[in-house]
């Protein structure tokens, strides 16, 4: 063999040995290094798109909380109306005429503008979510708001495959069954690489009052995304044991509310995003009800026997619904279809179409409507 050939052969052998030595070192480092933050590995995988195309599925803990009510027993959401104390507002008919302006029924579309709800625990990986503009709001102790920095990154416990709701609101709720934390975001999106962005993010607790301190800006009246949401488990069991949430086109602006001789919003709610400028547009925080004398057989007939409609109307008699947002159509909020997987025979967007408008009233906020305020 010529000398030059020998030299080339020896160089190739040295390169092969070096390659295998480097490979062995890499394998040893990878397998032996302590994993101080397991969730960070899973987060990196998620960011690289490993789980991006998975269909959203509720975690195995989705039934761990059952249908337990969030918030305290004395929360404004959880105490039923005391009809021996409650009074219908003297301007209720005029307010309801303003509410029905342009439509005659309340919609409820779980396919969009309804928050997807996921149940997580302390082992759920933390995922970075980049805020586009607003500050993170933390009201975990229900006493005061702690603010993050504008356009910061917030690490949230997001399960693999979770998605924000369709529609421009892009809402999502995460309930940590170990800690009681309620995480929420709005206008949430994922880019093509699976990276999360949001316009607003908050942390709250399901052990709190259900009405965060002043400065909480997630929804129009100053509440989180979980408050008043009708969950599928509640409809399946046949009873909703809390007040529901309602939005409509034109809750009154602060100026219009004052011109009507009313508060800008009804306490304990803390703010409004009302845009209505007509006389008798209703302030946010007002409690809408269905009159208690409406009999169950009338309700069943008006609902054509649909379970979701029936239990919602009965909840409106027993707890009412708080006006908390403006919207392009009167609506009430269920859990998003991605996590609830609603049967359209049980709950549909137009199930309340045939509820007579005259069944609805607004309670007078100047009088107590429950045994606890």
Query: How far is it from the N-terminal to the C-terminal residue, by CA?
Result: 99 Å
* Helical residue percent band: 10-25%
Order of helices and strands: HHHEEEEEEEEEEHEHEHHEEHE
What overall form do the CA principal axes indicate? globular
Give a structural overview:
This protein is globular. It is α/β, with parallel strands linked by helices. The protein has 8 helices and 15 strands. The strands form 3 sheets. It has a 6-stranded mixed beta sheet.
Task: For the structure shown, list the relevant keywords.
disordered N terminus, single chain, 15 strands, 8 helices, 373 residues, five-stranded mixed beta sheet, alpha/beta, six-stranded mixed beta sheet
Please specify the SSE layout and strand pairing.
Layout: H1 3-32, H2 38-47, H3 92-99, E1 116-120, E2 126-131, E3 137-138, E4 146-147, E5 153-157, E6 172-176, E7 181-186, E8 189-190, E9 196-198, E10 200-205, H4 232-237, E11 244-248, H5 254-259, E12 287-290, H6 296-302, H7 307-318, E13 321-326, E14 331-332, H8 337-340, E15 360-362
Task: Briefly say what this structure is.
This protein is an alpha/beta fold and about 375 residues long.
